[in-house]
Design brief:
With 235 residues, this protein is α+β, with helices and mostly antiparallel strands. 57% of the residues lie in helices and 16% in strands.
């Protein structure tokens, strides 16, 4: 008897060991194994170490440029699509994480039922029928039933499927958020570049107009001197 119990325990331990060994885990990151030659003399300022500066446009203190950038960020279709993808990825990540937690469902039930007792007529009610006798009615009862249901479900992640799905959903969320930031940075940079090019063109036009006026004034001065020289030579 003792030998049989010991064998059963050994079989159960072997099954648990096999299940644990076959557990699927997310692939680990191996970026640290990459042999990348980098310079040891690189330095970064505090501003660079803080990450991407999203408020660099405000440092120009140009209200018109800031208004154009704000309008472009709010109205650009590509940026709106990227923001929608970020929200969808965030929702998927939350759903993937919720699968690893216990699920509790509660419901309230209510039912009203009418039962007719056929074969048991009731002669006490109803209007009088011809002949002085009452019409028989069928006996019936109405019953109300109420109930509350609580269901608790929890999937044990033996094979690591839920953890792997959650890791993939989080990675997808981070990737879509990085894409959104890249699209926004590119859009802001293009708007600022176009604004600077327009400002440069306006200033070059103003400088060209000043040069034209200076050339005309120089032409008039030369013309006056030429006329004065001819008058003195002729006298």
């Amino acid at each position: 008897m003792k030998l049989r119990i010991t064998v059963h325990r050994l079989i159960l331990a072997a099954i648990c060991g096999v299940l644990w060994a076959c557990q699927a885990l997310p692939p680990r990151l191996r970026t640290s194994e990459a042999n990348l030659a980098t310079s040891e003399g690189w330095t970064a300022s505090k501003v660079a170490q803080a990450g991407v500066d999203h408020d660099w446009v405000e440092r120009f203190e140009d209200a018109r440029l800031l208004a154009l950038v704000t309008e472009a960020v709010k109205s650009n279709p590509d940026l709106k699509a990227a923001a929608s993808r970020v929200r969808m990825a965030a929702s998927s990540a939350k759903i993937a994480g919720a699968a690893a937690k216990p699920q509790l469902n509660a419901s309230l039930l209510g039912n009203r039922r009418k039962t007719n007792f056929l074969g048991f007529p009731d002669f006490g009610g109803g209007d009088g029928a011809p002949g002085g006798q009452a019409e028989p009615e069928v006996l019936s009862t109405i019953s109300d039933t109420f109930g509350v249901s609580l269901d608790l479900t929890w999937e044990i992640d033996v094979w690591g499927r839920i953890r792997a799905g959650q890791s993939a959903a989080l990675a997808e969320w981070q990737a879509t958020d990085a894409d959104f930031r890249a699209v926004r940075a590119s859009l802001v940079g293009q708007v600022a570049k176009a604004w600077f090019a327009l400002t440069e063109a306006v200033q070059q036009r103003a400088l060209s107009e000043q040069s034209v006026r200076a050339f005309r004034e120089t032409e008039e001065v030369i013309g006056d001197r030429f006329e004065i020289g001819e008058a003195e030579g002729g006298g």
